[in-house]
Design brief:
Layout (H helix, E strand, L loop, with lengths): L14 E4 L1 E6 L10 H11 L2 E6 L6 H10 L7 E4 L3 E3 L8 E3 L3 H14 L4 E3 L5 H14 L3 E3 L7 H6 L4 E3 L4 H4 L4 H6 L4 H6 L3 H14 L2 E3 L2 H8 L17 H18 L5 H21 L19 H13 L3 H6 L3 H7 L16 E4 L13 E6 L2 E3 L1 H17 L2
Parallel strand pairs: 2-3, 3-4, 5-6, 5-7, 7-8, 9-10
Antiparallel strand pairs: 1-11, 11-12, 12-13
Helix pairs in contact: 1-16, 3-4, 10-12, 12-13
């Protein structure tokens, strides 16, 4: 039965899935990635991404965008947003709140909640005592806190104080190391994680995550891009036409030089092995019942292109050993469960939000089929294949002007 004046779409021979969610994105980090409304948000829609969790963006603009999208005044995926990140006294990134003390952390949590953020995002440099103060205040205020396991905190401690999700496996491989105590205060990196990995410690940590239901957002596409940046062919990127000139000329070179100087300092052998260990960890966690979410860290990563990268993330989940259906769930039903919105999203059923993707082939047979998008429905608005192609052409034109 259809609503009055409803448009009827013939889906014969097609495959209908819930709209996809990218559960780790950035759209507005200072002046690092201009063009969010002209490039980033439309690229999500064109790729069937109907929801995003923004993990560090400027207030009040990001909340204005969130509300404008909800009201149909701005084209883009549904948003849940943390606003800025809680980081140390000298943050590495824009869209950060400087935290030097527990009092700073409590004030930041209270202030951000009052301004209307959906959750609190933790970054790596927040001091240890301030982290625990933020966790306590978030619990008191009834607001989710998520993000990095800070450098001075154990992943096991983050799970035990109720951090809802851990991004990029921060703290995880340190927690699997025989020298975890040293890594909390000293330099760390892939080589040390590879050389000091202990399977018994890993098993214990995985079991803790499963017991506490500590969600993991491995951002495999970003991790691969970060640790193997010196193997990336930056001159022959197939999605280059959708990337703003400013990103290519200013943002990406800044990222690359920073990564090479501060992160990719171990020999390539160890970084390649570490990336493989992340894939093995993903499968081990999944088998143990640790819940997983698809997230990409777009657009912060070099050529981690909005929308397209979520499909790559699901494909990496399959490479890690998940079935295509399980990979699809990391971007559909799992986000609904994480957000407490299973009643309204995450599956195709009467009465749920009209966020849908119609595909030409079955993604549960081959996850690459999730890219074969025939049409998208976002909040009840229908985008045909022609509409989506027009969106992509608009993005391509806009990318040339953002310098």
């Amino acid at each position: 039965m259809s609503a009055p004046n409803a448009r009827i779409i013939d889906g014969t021979g097609k495959y209908l899935i819930p709209g996809l969610w990218d559960m780790h994105v950035h759209t507005l980090m200072g002046d690092w990635m201009p063009g969010a409304t002209e490039v980033t948000l439309p690229l999500f829609v064109a790729n069937g991404v109907t929801g995003i969790r923004t993990m560090g963006d400027e207030l009040p603009t990001i909340l204005q965008w969130r509300d404008a999208i909800a009201q149909g005044k701005l084209l883009g995926p549904r948003m849940v947003s943390s606003g800025p990140m809680l980081d140390g006294p000298k943050p590495n990134f824009p869209a950060s709140v400087q935290i030097a003390s527990p009092a700073d952390a409590v004030h930041a949590v209270d202030s951000l909640k009052a301004q209307g953020v959906d959750f609190i995002k933790i970054q790596s440099l927040i001091p240890r005592d301030a982290y625990f103060a933020a966790a306590s205040e978030a619990r008191k205020q009834g607001i989710v806190f998520a993000g990095h396991v800070p450098d001075a905190v154990r992943a096991s401690e983050a799970a035990q104080v109720g951090q809802k999700s851990i991004e990029h496996y921060t703290g995880v491989f340190e927690g699997c190391s025989t020298i975890e105590d040293q890594l909390l205060v000293g330099p760390r990196g892939p080589r040390k994680s590879v050389e000091t990995f202990d399977q018994a410690r890993a098993n214990g940590l995985i079991a803790l995550f499963a017991k506490d239901q500590t969600w993991q957002v491995p951002t495999l596409v970003w991790e691969r891009g970060q640790w193997l940046i010196d193997k990336t062919d930056l001159k022959h990127q197939p999605l280059d036409k959708y990337v703003p000139v400013y990103w290519k000329q200013t943002t990406y070179p800044k990222f690359v030089s920073s990564i090479l100087a501060t992160l990719d300092t171990d020999p390539l052998f160890y970084r390649e092995r570490y990336v493989q260990m992340e894939m093995e960890m993903t499968l081990a966690m999944h088998k143990a019942g640790v819940p997983l979410l698809a997230g990409t860290d777009t657009a912060a990563g070099v050529y981690v292109v909005p929308g397209f990268s979520l499909h790559e993330e699901m494909e990496l989940f399959v490479q890690a050993g998940l079935t295509p259906m399980e990979a699809l769930q990391t971007a559909t039903s799992n986000p609904a469960r994480f957000l407490g919105r299973e009643a309204t999203m995450g599956s195709v059923a009467p009465g749920k939000l009209a966020d849908l993707v119609l595909l030409d082939a079955d993604p549960t047979v081959d996850i690459h089929n999730a890219r074969k998008i025939e049409s998208v429905v976002l909040a009840g608005r229908y985008f045909s294949r022609n509409d989506l192609d027009h969106l992509l052409s608009q993005v391509q034109a806009a990318a040339l002007k953002i310098r």
